[in-house]
Design a protein that fits this description.
Elements: H1 17-23, H2 25-38, H3 45-57, E1 62-66, H4 69-79, E2 87-91, H5 97-104, E3 108-112, H6 123-128, E4 134-137, H7 149-159, E5 162-166, E6 174-175, E7 178-179, E8 186-190, E9 204-208, H8 211-220, E10 225-227, E11 230-231, H9 242-273, E12 288-289, E13 295-298, H10 302-311, H11 341-349, E14 350-353, H12 361-377
Parallel strand pairs: 2-3, 2-4, 4-5, 5-8
Antiparallel strand pairs: 1-9, 6-7, 6-12, 8-9, 10-11, 13-14
The structure holds pyridoxal-5'-phosphate.
Length: 378
């Protein structure tokens, strides 16, 4: 096979949000139109209904809509009482928000390595990093694959630590038959447009079974007020708006179908890439259901492979090229290269291929074929 053997009629993007929009355009327009007609834009019936629908979906008793997934994490940490000097255990292989939500509050992120197969935090390494100052663990269900919650919850119980799940990438994934975000004390969601449940702007939600935490979150997202114009503690404005909520309610109705579509595309990639020398396909742990926010392979000479794919018209993405413990923001914490070997290896090797329900089987085939060629020639 030579480099000219792949002919794409049109380039394959990493994500095609326009195709998703076209498939639900009239439902979305009706939902937005209803909000416009109501002129009720902030904390109205759509936010309330979405909070009920998403919390039920996540097997929780309450949900609090907020302005972003980052705010969901910050507010969750605040509601959990995390503050200056506290230590919070986080994976280094994640989006920066998992850690900078901790440091924003004056607490210290303590970075732990990942499991090579799931890309999620390694429970065995967590225990070694627990100190008297440790207050919480934030497992991230990275790429849509659940973290090892049984072991994490056991450690948390033993050491009296809170568990805040970063479920930004995994809405709908299950671990031993239960949905992610339903395990810890608090679950955090992002509705960033590219997420599996994405809005038309920023948005997020915190879900919990604790009435106390739920009430505190409602107050914190509205300037720390417990009733109108009566503030008891420092909060700020972090509200999800009605238009976003109306859009997300439409999309939530399609989410299970879309997740099934993602799984089908993933299964097709798995078949096409099985046994290909140099390509490691994602592994799904026993008793887990992956929602493939990303379909992430490992390849040698990753940057060359990515460039070759781009030259063939195929977009791919690297989540994440620099582990958080090695980013300048945390230089003062004193981590160095080699501290978290699995994280650092993953950062060199991972490549996320296009995956979305609107991707056609032919396109999956083209991507797989192009990847095989790119790896062979890298
Ligand atoms: C793992 C993870 N945590 C947190 C966030 C933050 O979410 P947002 O972009 O909505 O603030 C994201 C998304 O970008 C994420 O992928």
């Amino acid at each position: 096979m030579n480099p000219t053997s792949i002919h794409l009629e049109r380039p394959i993007p990493a994500l095609d949000l326009l195709a998703q929009y076209r498939s639900i355009e009239s439902e979305i327009k009706t939902a937005i139109f209803e909000v416009l007609e109501s002129q009720h834009f902030i904390l109205g019936p759509n936010v309330k209904a979405l909070e009920e629908e998403v919390s039920r979906y996540c097997e929780r008793s309450s949900g609090v809509g907020v302005a972003s997934g980052t705010d969901a994490l910050i507010l969750a940490l605040r509601a959990a009482g995390i503050g200056p000097g506290d230590e919070v255990i986080v994976p280094s292989f994640s989006f920066i928000a998992t850690a900078d939500s901790v440091s924003l509050l004056g607490a210290i992120p303590v970075f732990v390595d990942i499991d090579a197969d799931s890309f999620c935090i390694q429970p065995a390494q967590i225990e070694q990093r627990i100190t008297k100052r440790t207050k919480a663990i934030i497992p991230v269900h990275l790429y849509g694959h659940p973290a090892e919650m049984d072991a994490i919850l056991m450690l948390a119980r033993e050491h009296k630590l809170l568990v805040i799940e970063d479920n930004a990438q995994a809405i709908g994934a299950t671990y031993r038959g239960k949905r992610t975000a339903s395990f810890g004390d608090i679950g955090c969601l992002s509705f960033f447009p590219s997420k599996n449940l994405g809005g038309f702007g920023d948005g997020g939600m915190v879900v919990t079974n604790s009435q106390e935490i739920g009430a505190r979150l409602r107050s914190l997202r509205a300037h720390g007020a417990t009733k109108k114009y009566y503030t008891v503690e420092q909060g700020w404005n972090s509200r999800l708006d009605e238009i976003q909520a109306a859009i997300l309610r439409v999309k939530l109705r399609h989410l299970d179908n879309w997740s099934a579509g993602r799984r089908e595309r993933a299964a097709q990639y798995d078949r096409l890439l099985a046994g290909v020398k140099g390509v490691v396909v994602p592994r799904v742990a026993n008793d887990c259901q992956h929602v493939y926010h990303q379909y992430t392979v490992r390849v040698p000479k990753r940057d060359r492979v990515q460039k070759a794919l781009a030259d063939m018209g195929i977009a791919s993405t690297v989540y994440y090229p620099t582990p958080i413990h090695l980013q300048p923001i945390y230089a003062a914490l004193g981590y160095k290269a080699g501290d978290l070997p699995e994280t650092e290896k993953a950062a060199q090797e991972v490549l996320s291929l296009p995956i979305y329900p609107e991707l056609t089987p032919e396109q999956v085939e083209q991507v797989a074929q192009a990847l095989v060629q790119a790896v062979r020639e890298a």
